[in-house]
Automatic annotation (TrEMBL), chain A:
Its main location: membrane. It is a peripheral membrane protein. Keywords: ATP-binding, Cell membrane, Membrane, Nucleotide-binding, Translocase, Transport. GO terms for cellular component: ATP-binding cassette (ABC) transporter complex. SMART domains: AAA. One of its GO terms (molecular function) is ATPase-coupled transmembrane transporter activity. Belongs to the ABC transporter superfamily. Residues 4-245 form the ABC transporter domain. This is ABC transporter ATP-binding protein. Pfam families: ABC_tran.
From TrEMBL, chain B:
InterPro entries: ABC/ECF_trnsptr_transmembrane (IPR003339). Signal peptide: none annotated. CDD domains: EcfT. Keywords: Membrane, Transmembrane, Transmembrane helix. PANTHER family: PROTEIN ABCI12, CHLOROPLASTIC (PTHR33514). Pfam families: CbiQ (PF02361). It is found in: Membrane. The chain crosses the membrane at residues 23-53, 65-85, 105-126, 236-254. This is Cobalt ABC transporter permease.
Length: 284, 258
């Protein structure tokens, strides 16, 4: 059974005329790692927020169609129920710190206290998630005293401790330096390997191509294509949607190097493999 | 980050006492002198508070409180000593200023009250982590939202003042004069305060979302990471304080009946 089923989802923010999401339908299977790409204002964040129920429950506004997670319909449920199944991490690590806790350890506990997890299990979960994100050494520091990357990992750990089955990351690395964003990607890969369904909005297209099972291409509130990275990035009119393909794909497009399925390679490994094959042809 | 709390962990006796014990102490220190109507009890409680403050190594931090209260007390002494309505007996004459006995006595009672209130609260505030205090309130049934608002103040205010200094640096680097006479400073205030307010509004919205996704509005019963540590010591102190309050009430009632 699909983990997330979205059918004909339409949404309009209050006091706006245009549809932020226009007739979107897709299905996501358990354990998949999905990347969402698209230019600014294409509805990526809104789509993310519609899965955890912030759209429509937090923002209100016009809503049509349905989002179903396992067997819960988002529209008929509420955020405090959904947050046990779906976790959301967003751009600014600074604003994700609750501001009411004095140590990283307590900060991670915040969500668990709210959903009523018994104390022993709470400590166990906090230790697990701190270990997973490699932030054990900051346990007793004040969350506000950490760097952006460290803070973002605390934010992710706080969500992971709540044991969601789906984790949504909305541009989690856009405010981080290369080292910080690599840390985040490593952590997310670990989670994906644990079997958690991951949905990630990201502008670093090479990373999306390397890590994701499938990619969603969004444009002006519509879902243009939802397929494997090489299918999506091999689209001829990709630049019409304001997206540049991964650098390896651009090079191979110019060289007209195609894989067996007629698509261009999207990662450095695929490109290398293809080049090696070409070379062995030439040598023969 | 700069902290705005007065609390500092000293691993002292009072650091490990349940916040409610200290609240009960405040109640006792304020109510018992009131019930008994004997001002010596105020002196006793002041002495106890000072003893507790010194023995818990926070005396240095309490000194500013003394200087603050000294101003109030001094004003009371001057005003009451000179102008108290029941003044009859002159006790001291400094040129044209006549200090009266009744007024000075009245000022003495005010001073005792001020010191008693300040010091008994100091016992609580200087030795209790604010979040512990708030947690114990939430535990007995206060709304967690209310608790969040209170405890976030301790972090968000320093955070805002940091934003403020960043913005003020940015404005200065673009040539805005922010130092000088009162008028320049008022002029500099508006371009400074409006980005602070707008940015905190935007931050508030995002933080609201962050809280939502962490189950802030969840209706399940909240649990707590920090265990409530009500030891036997706490219970004994509570019982003693309660007994004192009850006994003094009984004593007062009996003396009234006589």
């Amino acid at each position: 059974m699909s983990k997330i089923t979205v059918t004909n989802l339409k949404y309009k923010y209050p006091h706006r005329d245009n549809l932020a999401l226009n007739n979107i339908s897709f299905e996501i299977q358990p354990g998949e790692f999905i990347g969402i790409v698209g230019e600014n204002n294409s509805g990526k964040s809104t789509l993310c927020q519609s899965i955890i129920g912030l759209v429509p429950h937090f923002y209100k506004g016009g809503y049509g169609g349905s989002v179903i997670i396992d067997d819960i319909e988002v529209y008929k449920s509420d955020i405090s129920t959904l947050c046990k199944k779906v976790g959301l991490i967003f751009q600014n690590p600074f604003n994700q710190v609750t501001g009411s806790k004095e140590t990283v350890f307590e900060e991670i506990a915040f969500g668990l206290e709210n959903i009523g997890i018994p104390r022993d299990e709470m400590i166990e979960r906090i230790n697990f998630s701190m270990k997973l994100l490699d932030i054990e050494q900051y346990k007793d520091r004040n969350p506000f005293d950490l760097s952006g990357g460290q803070m973002q990992r605390v934010a992710i750990a706080s969500i992971i401790a709540m044991k969601p089955e789906i984790i949504i990351l909305d541009e989690p690395t856009s405010q981080l330096d290369p080292a910080g964003s690599e840390e985040v990607f490593q952590a997310v890969t670990k989670l994906s390997n644990e079997g958690i369904t991951i949905i990630m909005v990201e502008h670093k297209i090479e990373k999306i191509a390397a890590y994701c099972d499938k990619v969603m291409l969004m444009h002006k509130g519509e879902l243009i294509k939802f397929d494997t990275p090489s299918e999506v990035f091999s689209l001829d009119n990709l630049s019409d949607y304001g997206i540049n393909p991964p650098i390896f794909t651009s090079i191979c497009k110019k060289l007209n190097l195609r894989k067996d399925d007629n698509n261009y390679p999207v990662t450095i490994e695929e490109t290398l493999q293809l080049l090696k094959k070409e070379r062995s042809y030439e040598q023969n | 980050m700069k902290s705005i709390t007065l609390y500092e962990y000293k691993n002292s006796f009072l650091n490990h006492i349940d916040p409610f014990c200290k609240l009960l102490y405040i109640l006792a220190a304020l109510s018992i002198p009131l019930i008994l109507g004997v001002s010596v009890t105020k002196l006793i409680f002041i002495a106890i508070s000072i003893f507790l403050i010194i023995s818990n190594k926070v005396f240095k931090k309490v000194i500013p409180l003394f200087t603050f209260s000294a101003i109030i007390i001094l004003t009371a002494i001057i005003i009451q000593g000179l102008f108290y309505s029941n003044n009859k007996h002159i006790i001291l004459q400094l040129g044209p200023l006549k200090f009266y006995k009744e007024g000075l006595l009245f000022a003495y009672h005010i001073a005792l009250n001020v010191l008693n209130i300040l010091l008994s609260f100091a016992v609580l505030i200087f030795t209790t982590k604010p979040t512990d205090l708030i947690d114990s309130f939430v535990r007995v049934g206060f709304s967690p939202r209310f608790g969040y608002v209170l405890s976030s103040v301790f972090q968000i205010i320093p955070q805002m003042s940091e934003t403020m200094s960043t913005i003020s640096d940015a404005q200065k680097s673009r040539g805005m004069e922010s130092e000088g006479n009162l008028f320049t400073r008022i002029k500099a205030f508006f371009p400074l305060i409006s980005p602070v307010i707008t940015s905190s509004l935007i931050n508030t919205r995002e933080r609201a979302i962050a809280l939502e996704v962490r189950g802030f509005n969840s209706t399940t019963k909240k649990t707590f990471l920090n265990q409530q540590t009500r030891t036997r010591k706490d219970k004994i102190i509570n019982i003693i304080l309660l007994l004192l309050i009850i006994l003094s009430s009984i004593w007062r009632i009996i003396t009234c009946l006589k």
